Amino acid sequence: MHLLNFFKIGFVYFLAWSFARKLNNEKKTLREEIKLILPYIAVFILVIYLIAVMQNDLGQVVVLALTLAVMAFFAGTSLQLFMLAILGSVFVFFNCYF
Predict the structure, then answer these.
(1) Hey, how many other C-beta atoms are within 10 angstroms of the C-beta on 56?
(2) What DSSP string runs through 13-60?
(3) Which of 11, 45, 88, 98 is 20 to 30 A removed from 38 (C-alpha atoms)?
(4) What is the spatial distance between Cα 95 and Cα 6, in angstroms, rounded to a whole number?
(5) How far apart are CA 66 and CA 12, in angstroms?
(6) What average pLDDT values come out for the chain (98 residues) when binned by 10 residues?
């Protein structure tokens, strides 16, 4: 089994463990939520580099991005942050595609 497969599984476990510790159902402002989610975005950028650039596998990046978004939403982030992430993704897609 390839080492990168273990990394993908480890990424999901890391997200679950970390979200359970840091995110809760307390009401936060959008700015506070963005500050909480920034380290996850940094880790995801590392994932993009490892998988999309080195392995040339964009499909896995998309799957892991959706995993990150869904896990963050169910862990307690607001609908505002979720919609902001979707709009940002659409913006990046159209900028890269066209």
Answers:
(1) 7
(2) HHHHHHHHHH--SS---HHHHHHHHHHHHHHHHHHIIIIIIIS--HHH
(3) 98
(4) 32
(5) 11
(6) 73 84 76 86 80 76 83 83 86 81
